[in-house]
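step=encode ok
step=design start
structure_in=
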């Protein structure tokens, strides 16, 4: 799980939101990679380390929005059912898949809706990049990187 959700976001509860994609996968390989990433995200949210182990390569590495690097063993350890927390609602958009032989990239935007003070909510977006490799048993993830998307600052009024 990306570390941005490990602090207050992970403690916040919510339901899984539907995913909308800006680009629909067209080739069989693109469809397989999109399916792999969906299965991975579902297994993350279900805290299913067995499924995550099947979907990731033994050399899997994940980089959080804070720049923290988690090797596969540490990553899988985070998803033990006893550590399960509810995920905030999330929408998926701006998906772009690139297949380059036996390697593929799936880049997408994840937008989380987080509870705010006095019943309000706010959103936090993350750009996720998944790297998959096709082997004898099909596609498996070898890496993921999450980059926080910082909202643009409002323009500053010129001083006189």
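sequence_out=
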């Amino acid at each position: 799980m990306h570390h941005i959700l490990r602090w207050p976001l992970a403690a916040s509860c919510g339901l899984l939101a539907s995913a909308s994609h800006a680009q629909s996968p067209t080739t069989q390989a693109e469809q397989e990679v999109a399916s792999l990433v969906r299965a991975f995200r579902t297994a993350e949210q279900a805290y299913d380390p067995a499924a995550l182990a099947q979907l990731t390569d033994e050399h899997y590495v994940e980089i959080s929005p804070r720049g923290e690097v988690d090797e596969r063993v540490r990553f899988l350890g985070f998803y033990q059912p006893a550590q399960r927390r509810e995920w905030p609602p999330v929408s998926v958009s701006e998906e772009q898949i690139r297949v380059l032989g036996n390697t593929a990239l799936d880049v997408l935007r994840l937008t989380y809706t987080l509870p705010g003070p006095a019943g309000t909510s706010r959103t936090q977006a993350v750009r996720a990049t998944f790297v998959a490799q096709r082997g004898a048993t099909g596609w498996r993830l070898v890496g993921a990187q999450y980059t926080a998307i910082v909202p643009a600052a409002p323009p500053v009024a010129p001083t006189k």
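step=design ok
step=annotate ok -> Confidence is low (pLDDT under 50) at residues 3-22.
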